[in-house]
Amino acid sequence: MDIALSPEQRAIADSVARICAGFGDDYWSACDEAARFPEEFHRAMAEAGFLGIAMPEEFGGAGLGVTEAAILMHAVTKGGGAYAAASSIHLNIFGPHAIVVHGTAEQKRRFLPPLISGKQKACFGVTEPNAGLDTTSIETFARRTNDGYIVRGRKIWTTTAQEADKILLLARTAPKADCKKPTDGMTLFYTNLDRSKVEVRRIPKMGRAAVDSNAVFIDDLAVPDEDRIGEEGKGFRYLLDSLNPERILIGAEAIGLGRDALARAARYAKERVVFGRPIGQNQGIQHPLAEAWAYLESAWWMCLRAASLYDSKQPCGAEANAAKFLGARAGFDACTKAIMTHGGMGYAKEYQVERLFRESMLPRIAPVTEQLILSFIAENVLDLPKSY
Ligand SMILES: Cc1cc2nc3c(=O)[nH]c(=O)nc-3n(C[C@H](O)[C@H](O)[C@H](O)COP(=O)(O)OP(=O)(O)OC[C@H]3O[C@@H](n4cnc5c(N)ncnc54)[C@H](O)[C@@H]3O)c2cc1C
Asked: What is the C-alpha separation between 199 and 191, in angstroms, rounded?
């Protein structure tokens, strides 16, 4: 059993760290305050070839696995930009997986190179206001026409829809009531986000203001047949393929974010002198930070274990869910402790930990909540009865 990173994997992390060093706290604070997309960071990552890390080489990607993608995203959040940095590129990393696996050769040629080069951006429209986590209850409907579909409906929380050229969209093509299984009758499209037919309304939110999240209103959007991914009615199944990698990446991102918060806390604990000594000399300050390190480190190895299982084509549902759960908890925990270590200054924008703290809530909620992760483990690992 070899559990050390390879020299190539370490090189990915080092290279990302060098890019991130060019984007300091002032940059991320300004993006956060102005709710401005970190365009320059997105471009730097595209130019370094990282957007296609897990995409096939024939379309300009690097053809690497989820392990390398997790190492990349962990380095991205650790580099100071937190989720504003990660979410500006997150969809590129594994989002197009359904196109890679189920798209035609023509679709891959048309869709993947512009995403990998950073020329186009995409958003992901699954969640709906009336369905929530119960995805099979989505109501957005794609009605058949002679040469395609007309789509009507609403999505919510669609990230980067202000910036995106394309949308990866899940819609019903048959009502749930007419399907044998609730997961049948949903179809996946990758199509132009035509703003004459789609209204995108930004949602003001707690953190990660730099990367927009939106309510999306789709009003008779025409989608040609050539923008349907795979077969009609099988879209939900196609998305399932990419759920485990996405959970692993979210876990890795949350851990990187937590490591940045912890490093800032340890630095402050050495510098800040109260009662004639550095606050970090007190065990009351040391122990919570040491505990945060232990949680982060154990969550990290769970992420790498899940990624390694996925890359070697072994079942990894429980591990991927645990990686996301533990990563999000450990990241949030480290950010909370970083604020407490800074005392009053933890509440000030100057020290950045409040920005990290606000963003650390996100991986606990999206793309799936802690409750549903625990239900998955209860049902699939512990063999307990399905609860919903
Ligand atoms: C910043 C942000 C960005 C996002 N980006 C995207 C995106 O780009 N694309 C996209 O499609 N979605 C996106 N989402 C949506 C996200 O995936 C959902 O918010 C998340 O899946 C939770 O769904 P919900 O908000 O509808 O919660 P609900 O389904 O309304 O659930 C509310 C609460 O009830 C709990 N609950 C519900 N049912 C059960 C049950 N049976 N047992 C136990 N607990 C239960 C949930 O766990 C949760 O805590 C984003 C969300 C956020 C906050």
From this structure: 15
Is residue 269 within 8 A of residue 169, CB to CB? The reply is: no
Q: Which residue has a Cα nearest atom 44 of ligand 1?
A: 371
From 178, 66, 59, select the one nearest 120 (Cα to Cα).
59
**Could you please report the per-residue DSSP string of 171-238?**
EESS-GGGSSSTTSSEEEEEEE--TTTEEEEEPP-SS-TTS-EEEEEEEEEEEEGGGEESSTTBHHHH
pLDDT digits (tens, 9 = 90+) for 347-388: 999 999 999 999 999 999 999 999 999 999 999 999 999 998
pTM for the whole structure: 0.97
Q: Please, what is the end-to-end C-alpha distance for the chain in angstroms?
A: 39
Residue 159 near ligand 1, beta carbon < 6 Å: yes
370 CA closest ligand 1 atom index = 47
Ligand 1 pocket test: pick from 94, 123, 133 the residue with the most ligand atoms within 8 Å of its Cβ.
133
